[in-house]
Every structure is written in structure tokens, then in C-alpha cells.
Amino acid sequence: MTDMLVSLGTWNWLIFGFVLMALEVLAPGIFLLWLGLAALLVGLISFAVTTSWQLQLVMFAVFAAAAVPVWRRLARPQPDAGASPFLNKRAEALLGREFTLEKPIIDGSGTMRIGDTVWRVAGPDTPAGTRVKVVQVDGANLTVAAA
Length: 147
Description:
By secondary structure, the chain is of the alpha+beta class. 48% of the residues lie in helices and 20% in strands. The longest helix has 23 residues. The mean pLDDT is 86.
């Protein structure tokens, strides 16, 4: 076995790295990617500097072990400053905003179109064309008051 390692030399690491990366494509899980990168790195270093196979194994172990904290740092979710706090909370985003009624509110309930969505609204009887302000949100129901 050691004869095979010594005879192929640097090419072992490059082939091993590409095989690991191909396996990562077939069975994704991010784990083999880092081992493949470690093997490729050892292969590239071995092209530049002649080292024993024992030192190459140690370098591979060090690079593979160093890949774990690097991956954890890269995989950590980054806070997105531009993210909308109302993503998936469309109704809460309407709280406090003013709109014009297209249809009147009769007997305390009605509907109002906001963008491409028709919302159920509750509030005092109000004629169409009146500006109203959303004062409360309950699921898909909006409570409005005169603005």
C-alpha cells in the first residue's frame, strides 16, 4: 500500500480531491467538499515542495481539521440588514398606514383593495372615497378608523 502512495506521489492527492468533490456532487452534504479541498491543497503544495508521504498525510489531517471551523464560520447565518421585518407578516405591515376606500363600509364591515389583495375591513360606516387608517390587525381582518 505504501508503495502505491509513493509511486503516484502528488497525483494521488489531486485524484483523491477530485473524487471526493465528485462524491459531494452525487451525495451533497458539504462534508466531502472540505476533505476534497484539503486533498487538492496538499496536492498543490506537493507540486511546489517535495515532501514525504507522512508529512503529506499530516498536512491533509491539519487542513481537513481546519476546514471545520472555517465551514462553521461561513455557514453561520448572517444578519441581513436589508431584510424586511414584515416578511410573511403582510397585515402587520399595513398597521398605521392610510388608504382610500373604494367601496363603502356598511354595518361595520366591508372590503378594501390594497395593492393586489382584497382585505376584509371593520370599522364605522364610511362612504367610498374616504381616507381611513388601519388601527388594528387580526389575521386577515383590518380594523380601520377615519384618517
